[in-house]
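Take a record.
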Amino acid sequence: MDVLTVAAVLSLLSVSAAKPLNCEDLVQPLALNITQISGKWIFIEGTTDHQEYATVLKTVNGSFIDIVMSHNGTSVIKDRHMMNGQCQYSVHNMTFSDNSFHVLYANGTSTCIILPAGPDSLVLSCIIVEVGDITKSLYIFGRTKTLSQSALEMYRKQVECLEFPKPSFKYDGKLDICPDKEKPAVTEEDKQGDKQ
């Protein structure tokens, strides 16, 4: 290979190398693409500016959400949380406007925007309003139990940029997440039948 070819290849590589993202890029809301956020997501890390909610996050063993589009154009978010070793399930309606989605709870609402994220991950910046209390939170979810180091570093940089405390919840990838309530339970008879 001649020197000019090597120089050309090296100059192309230096131009195409990914530049580190600055805070302005990292906290810029993305256009809401409902198809991309639909499906199952495992809660990987989360932080909040509210001390009481941070205490609640520390009780989470594992969490999972499923964003489901229905045939009539409405959506629901199904939550499965294991907190202090106990499974908790809930289903909430979702609405969409501009680049955000809104979830209505019995005692408040949550409005979330999507921030830049690594592959197979979802970063949500949420404002939760409950009985006169406003809480800001930042979460990262993954399609699998573990994310790439670069995706986690990007999220942690977003935490810094938005001046949140270090994450109160970090999923270790080892604990099981609550089983799906919609699946029938396996009975002893079923287990015996499998052995025959």
In short: Helices lie at 3-16, 23-26, 34-37, 51-57, 149-161, 188-195.
